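I am writing to request your help with a piece of structural work I have in hand. Here, with my thanks, is the record as I have it:
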Amino acid sequence: MALFDLPLDELRAYRSASPEPADFDAFWTKTLQEAREHELDARFEPVVTGLRTVQVYDVTFAGFGGHPVKGWLTVPVSVDGPLPTVVEFIGYGGGRALPHQHLLWASAGFAHFVMDTRGQGSTWSVGDTPDPVGSAPAFPGFMTRGVEDPESYYYRRVFTDGVRAVEAARAHPLTDASRTAVTGISQGGGVTLAVGGLISDLTAVAPDVPFLCDFPRATTVTDQNPYREIGNYLKAHRGRTERVRETLAYFDGVHFAARGRAPALFSTALEDQTCPPSTVFAAFNAWAHEEKAIEVYEFNDHEGGGPHQEAVKLRWLTNRL
């Protein structure tokens, strides 16, 4: 696959034209206040997995609307004190999977919290969290569920779940709330950016090939799903483009990035047609904290850096946590 986006020198200077809603902060303050009216009720049930070097807990906590959200907490065995903690969010269509699929961070001495994604987990990895909220007519997938109103949009619930997942992770006695990082790939990277903009005291933020960034460009520069779901919705619902764009602006990673208060490590791939590099650089260039870096994989598609980026993140987070 050939390079299709802006040249790298232009990417490094690229800024999004995504308009920020005037009430962006008020919208998210209200959303999180409503979520916190429900007790977090984080429950951690030990799981027998056959793994000898880690202990796994099956987690349930109250997310958006007080709805139960699942997760895994994995910690090294025989730990003596609060551990630096990595909270991870999952890529599009996937769920929290099975405990033995998440061993990297606990093997390195961290506590590792994986959030299930409501309504997903029936494609490439299994999930266990339903989304009890319906929506108006939508194109198949998750991108257009409730997309004509920010109050009802699907990612309002997911991003709120992400904030509550950090709160749940910090509620366990083996985690150190003062040393908490968030990370994720693709959709998980988009949730990472949102949580990084909504929680002010994170230690580090590490989104890889993040999705849900710079919607005005993403929905016109690539015809790959999931962004194409929005175009297909508008193909059927003619005349609603402006309303949809107004909704998406409340969920654009660029605007969350402008509120990022922690060091950040991004990654992108220049042949990535799923999350085009210009949309990733839009969020990176908007990231507010002065300590930030981006790993660029010139000849990779949406797999990005894969295990190579995991190694980079492991070194980077070890130095910060």
About this structure: The chain has a mean pLDDT of 97.
